[in-house]
Amino acid sequence: MWWWLLGVLSCVLLVVIIIFFVTTGQRYKVFSEKCLRPPGPLVTDSRQREDRLKRGFRVDRVPPALDAVVIGSGVGGLTAAALLSKAGKRVVVLEQHDQAGGCTHTFQNKGFEFDVGIHYLGQLHENSLLKVALDQITEGQLQFTRLEQHFDTLLLGQADERREYHIHAGKTEMAASLKKQFPGEEEAIDEFMRLMKLSARRTPFIATLKIIPYWLVNFLLRTGLLDRISSVFRLAATSHTEIMSRLTKNKDLRALSAYLFYGVPPKESSFLINALLLHHYKRGAYYPRGGASEFAFHIIPVIQQAGGTVLVRAPVQRILLNQQGKAYGVTVLKGQEEIEVHAPVVISNAGIFNTFQKFLPQQIQDKPEVQSLLGMVRHGMGSFLVFVGLDGSKEELGIVSTNFWMYKDSDLDTLMERYSSLSREEVLGNIPMMFITFPSAKDPTTNIRHPGKSCMTLLTMARYEWFEEWEGTKLGKRGQDYLDLKNSMAQELLGWALKIFPQLRDKVVMVEAATPLTNVHYLGAPRGEMYGAEHNLERFTPETVARTRPQTPINGLYLTGQDVFCNGMAGALHGGLLCASAVLNQILYIDLLALKTRLKSKQTNHKQAW
Q1: Contact, 152 vs 438, CB < 8 A?
Q2: Secondary structure of 58-85 in the HEC alphabet?
């Protein structure tokens, strides 16, 4: 009986807190149907694009009377900035690279265009929460192309023992397709789908831990009420391997349930995050029309409309603190001089480690509350990418929009554990996993923008330690040993890919590789990680979830992006939503859900009218 009374009390407290947020303080009208415009034509003029995406930092370009300064122009930073701008705030976004966008930026080499982090996206069907949010921060200008229903292929094993599995999108098609490929596993697949759906529907409870006061989270944890509120907290804190081993003994099915790799083996990762990653594509996979740089290209004008701007080549050196320990701005290195940029709110999209260990003085880093926070997370694994330029259109080359995930064994725990334990000397010849994608086959505008050219991107995980010897060296000046390792790894991956696509062997025009050190240079990632802090089991325990919130121990300093929520574009965007909610002291999810409901109602009424 006691826990029932405590549960009722907790729910009442939660309702009271939400009502307090809704009814007190200034209310900002951030979301509106009126801001949406018919999509404009694709802008291909390089000068127009560079004027927006590559606007360099100068003192006279910093707007006066700033309300906030954002460090980093990835999706998390741009989302937070755009939402604050829609609330009437003047924001400047400072990007250390020479192009805005973070992991959504693109680059060109020998006439080929490559994206670095956006390979495909999900949950962008009409009136989904993610689609409504993106429409709001781009005023409806960001368009997507839906990929084939068969969006992923999983290849397990080597040579003659290789097995091929297809993953299909669709409410019922995903499960039906798996049942056809795994006869006798129908019960396990149904239960996995049930847990996957439960994870997706109850994830708002996870986000709630980042919004409600920490003392209430602590109370719910200490009393054991949190697990009684929802089973999603147990799913989040249980390893993927543990849950899947209860469902099936089929190793290939277990591997398929966790095939979307991000550097953590299933036994060390949360079941929740793996279930959410697969569920993300259940309603279809999508790609941005015009390429990944369209994200920043269409978010920036929203920031500019409120008097703000996005400036590149603006490496932040320090976060400024006054005598009371409150953040009041940042310094930017311009030549040999540090320029101060003042604002009452500082938002960091540079990651939790950069924020506390690079931008803040040692006495702040040494504070127990900061050390406690950093002790809850660790650096994610780095990545290694190979960008391949191909001579010919997708029709001529016979390439498709489907992605390919490849593992040399179905025991992903052992495979990934062995791989991450390798020394640098042991890596070559032992890369056990790879992702293959053809961005040019996904974007229908490629034939207009880059006729007769196609791109292939290969991706695997890579330890920073393998390249640590060259830490601190400059891009292009890292010596022959570094080049030999980088090129040998690239050729190993390319050779593996060409066994799957032998028709491309004579069509390769250029090959460029990116190591974790490349990510340090272009993304500012401290150890070359693309997905921020590691997505291990500890990160998704309720206490860590609640502590890694936008508010920091430093007054006036907030976090946004992947480290606030989870990996990927959607995770970074939700990090931005949480951050803007904290800065404005207004739960923006309530307003966003209200808009989503109105739009869905209009859609239903329109269909009935027809």
Answers
A1: no
A2: CHHHCCCCCCEEEECCCHHHHHHHHHHH
Beta bridge partners of 513: 386
Cβ contact 104:293 at 8 Å: yes
Q: Could you report how far apart the first and last alpha carbons of the chain are, in Å?
A: 53
Task: Copy the structure tokens of residue 332.
Answer: 């930017």
Strands (E), 304-359: 309-311, 316-321, 327-334, 337-342, 346-348
**pLDDT band at 610; cut points 50, 70, 90:** low
Question: Regarding beta strands 316-321 and 327-334, do their DSSP bridges make them parallel or antiparallel, or are they unpaired?
Answer: antiparallel
Mean pLDDT, to the nearest integer, of 345-368?
97
Compute the distance between CA of residue 407 and CA of residue 433 in angstroms, rounded to an integer: 4
Instruction: Dump pLDDT digits (tens) for 219-244.
Output: 999 999 999 999 999 999 999 999 99
DSSP conformation class of 551: B
Going by pLDDT thresholds of 50, 70 and 90, the confidence category of residue 603 is: confident
Pairing of strands 91-94, 68-71: parallel
Residue with tokens 């900002």: 28
Residue 241 to residues 195, 288, 334, 376, Cα–Cα distance (Å)? 14, 33, 49, 22
pLDDT (average), residues 528-550: 95
Q: Is residue 457 within 8 Å of 119, Cβ to Cβ?
A: yes
Q: How many beta carbons lie within 10 A of that of residue 212, not counting itself?
A: 19
What does the DSSP 8-state code read for residue 112?
E
Q: Is residue 276 within 8 Å of residue 260, measured between CB atoms?
A: no
| Single-letter amino acid code for the residue at 49 | R
On whether the CB atoms of residues 427 and 466 are closer than 8 A, the answer is yes
Contact by Cβ (8 Å): 533, 353: yes
Cβ neighbours for 108, distance < 8 A, ≥ 6 positions apart: 114
pLDDT tens per residue across span 389-405? 999 999 999 999 999 99
pTM of the model: 0.94
Angle at alpha carbon of residue 218, lines to 214 and 224, rounded to 5°: 145
Q: Which two tokens stand for residue 378?
A: 């660790």
Distance CA 515, CA 153 (A): 25
Structure tokens at 81: 């900035």
How does DSSP assign 363-393, residue by residue? Answer: HHHTSHHHHHHHTT--BPPEEEEEEEEEES-
